[in-house]
Amino acid sequence: MSATATTAPAEDSAAPALPAAGSSFYTAMRLLPKERREAMYAVYAFCRAVDDVADDGGPRAVRQVELDRWRADIDALYAGRPAPRVRDLVEPVRRYDLKREDFQAVIDGMAMDAVEDIVAPDAETLDLYCDRVASAVGRLSVRIFGMPEADGIRLAWHQGRALQLTNILRDIDEDAERGRLYLPREKLAAIGLTDPTPMEAISHPRIGEVCLSVAREAEEHYQATWEIIRRSPRKATKAARLMAAAYHLYLKAVIARGWAMPRARVKPGKLALLAVVLRHGLI
């Protein structure tokens, strides 16, 4: 993607991106009533667009400029002057009281990837990253789902971290190829790694110890997620339940596979995913 501070790129007026059919997100959102589903698709399109800037937006300076344009567009949206590419967010923001700071947090999270490649962040930085790129999306989502405010925010906090840590464990090889390493510095230091390159870290014979420690943290967030879901209205948690159950399959799959190289890309079986849909999508 190319952009300047004064010239809008061609995709400003393009049709919003939709999640891939058959994905866990797509399936979960299909469970929602039409108005809530369309609101989630608008949020997804925003998140997808800024994520594309961070990952594939050209030179770093160009990415920064384009993310700044997105920040300005969100500010303009809340000032009543929506740019064409955020007009699909107007009604969701009004109807569900979506917060400007959550959209801006998502952009800030993407900027953490865009400004420089993240390599072995400390635990505090990793938690901030997870909050911005995942839990902030969760905060937008739970309002659309209709969750009670307090438990909705708690759910977003725990589920966002559970899902993002799962993504980190699932994608360590792909991230290393991009020059990124999201495993926390403190856990790497515990196995004797200080300032490793991503490839050095993921090739280390004791990297499984680090990954299993991160997996335990993810599991704790999943358990907290389910505690909140169990005490919440079932209608408002249907999509969250399906997402939590589906992503938990990925966590269990990477643990079962292990961490010895070469590592095969994991994907839960179709029957397991179908069982999740039947259990959480039909009731």
Q: What does this entry look like structurally?
A:
This protein has helices at residues 24-29, 34-56, 60-78, 90-96, 100-115, 123-145, 149-170, 172-177, 185-189, 198-202, 207-230, 234-257, 270-281. Helix 3 (60-78) packs antiparallel against helix 5 and helix 6 (123-145) packs across helix 7. By secondary structure, it is mainly α. Mean pLDDT is 89; it is low at 1-11. It is globular. The longest helix is centred in the C-terminal third of the chain and has 24 residues, at 207-230. The chain is built from 13 helices and no strands.
List the defining traits of the structure above.
single chain; 283 residues; mainly alpha; 13 helices; globular; disordered N terminus
Show the helix and strand layout.
Elements: H1 24-29, H2 34-56, H3 60-78, H4 90-96, H5 100-115, H6 123-145, H7 149-170, H8 172-177, H9 185-189, H10 198-202, H11 207-230, H12 234-257, H13 270-281
Helix pairs in contact: 2-3, 2-5, 2-6, 3-5, 5-6, 6-7, 7-11, 7-12, 11-12, 12-13
